[in-house]
Amino acid sequence: MVYTLLEHLSDELLISVFEYLDAIHLYHAFSDLNTRFNHILNDSLLRLYFDSNSVRDCRDRCVFNRINQHQIISLTITSGPFLAYLKFHISTFINLQSIFFNSTNHSQDFLSELESLGKLRTLVVQNTLNECEFVRRIVFENELPQLRKFVYIPKVQHYSVEHVCLNDTTRNRSNNLEHMTIRNVHSSNLAGFLRKSSNLKYLNVSISDTLETGVLSSKLIYLNINLFRTTYDNLYQLLYLSPLLNLKQFELSGYGYDQKLLNGEKLRYLVSSLPSLRIFNVDMKINTTPSLEIKIATFENEKIYWKNLKWYIEGMYATLRAELF
Q1: What secondary structure does DSSP assign to 184-229, as a single string?
Q2: Where is each F-box domain found (predicted)?
Q3: Which of 46, 83, 303, 316 lies at a 20 to 30 A Cα distance from 15?
């Protein structure tokens, strides 16, 4: 059957379509068109996504006041005039499951308001300048124990998460995070992050200096590490000391200064102790040296283990991409 009019779709299909739209835009388009659309907009099965950046004038604010806030499950918060209003009313979003703080340096001001949101599972903080205190309170203090996913991506790429200190009151407390993405972590803090996150199944981390040894969660299924000055031996120690019996996918990227990181045989040996590993991807930028082609040849010599081998020169660096299978 071919439908030529939107009104011919069932309520269930319309709800599925509406869930792709931002709540403000949805209400502007369909509110008060007819009784049926009003009924669908108020249906408890409808899950709404709201971006504070959509509220640009008084008309938008009036539309927002008509939205059933218990229908909102995802909220994006950006800097703007609506920020102060959300700070004092966010606790009314009782079914909120995910929050995205984008380009605002006031994320930690919301923390106390988020504690009552028992269904909140995902928290993303991105394009901010300095939220280290926020990271400390989430990861080390476990101020939001209901969280399962935490993503922190600072705006300035060279800025690192430094000087995050534990105190005596948090030594025996662990967070409940299962998924963590953190960009530009200072190595002195990585071991603490790992120690406080014993339930991690997914870890995506970029390290701003030489890697220090820590212990990864034994529950880890996915691991993505972006390196800066880390050596092969440090990376080997990290994997060797961690009982990664469940790890299925390992992504390794960054800048390679250690010649062992350019050796196909060494890299294969690096992951040989991971019994459940199914995918190992390498994407490294490497300082060009007279022995570069010799190192690359180690992948060719073991081509029964490696596939999709690609490398090319850009200025002072060579880019190497390979997959182990």
Answers
A1: EE-HHHHHHHHHT-TT-SEEEEEESSS-------TT--EEEEEESS
A2: 3-53
A3: 83
Q: Which amino acid is at 57?
A: D
The pTM (predicted TM-score) of the whole model is: 0.85
Nearest to 68 by CA among 18, 104, 103, 106: 18
Residue 3 has what pLDDT? 54
Q: What does each C-alpha distance from 2 to 5, 6, 8, 20, 59 come to in angstroms?
A: 9, 11, 10, 22, 37
Task: Please list, in sequence order, all residues whose beta carbon lies within 8 angstroms of the beta carbon of residue 120, skipping any fewer than 6 positions away.
Answer: 96, 97, 98, 99, 114, 144, 146, 147
CB 76 within 8 A of CB 53: yes
- Identify the DSSP state of 22: B
Domains of the chain: 48-279 (3.80.10.10)
3-class secondary-structure state, position 124: strand
Residue 158's pLDDT band, with cuts at 50, 70 and 90, is: very low
Contact 122, 98 (CB under 8 A): yes
Sheet strands side by side (includes 317-324): 48-51, 72-78, 98-102, 122-128, 149-154, 179-185, 202-207, 222-227, 249-256, 279-287, 317-324, 306-314
Half-sphere exposure of 108 (CA within 13 A, CB side): 15
- The two tokens of residue 242 are 């961690």
172 token code pair: 């025996």
**Considering the chain, what is the average pLDDT of its residues?**
82
In the chain, how long is the greatest CA-to-CA distance?
Answer: 75
Q: pLDDT tens-digit profile of 261-310?
A: 778 888 888 888 888 999 999 888 877 666 667 767 777 777 777 787 77
Which one-letter DSSP state was computed for residue 294? H
Per-residue pLDDT tens digits for 14-23: 999 999 999 9
Q: How confident is the model at residue 223 (pLDDT cuts 50, 70, 90)?
A: very high
Q: What is the dihedral of CA 16, 20, 23, 29, to 10 degrees?
A: -80
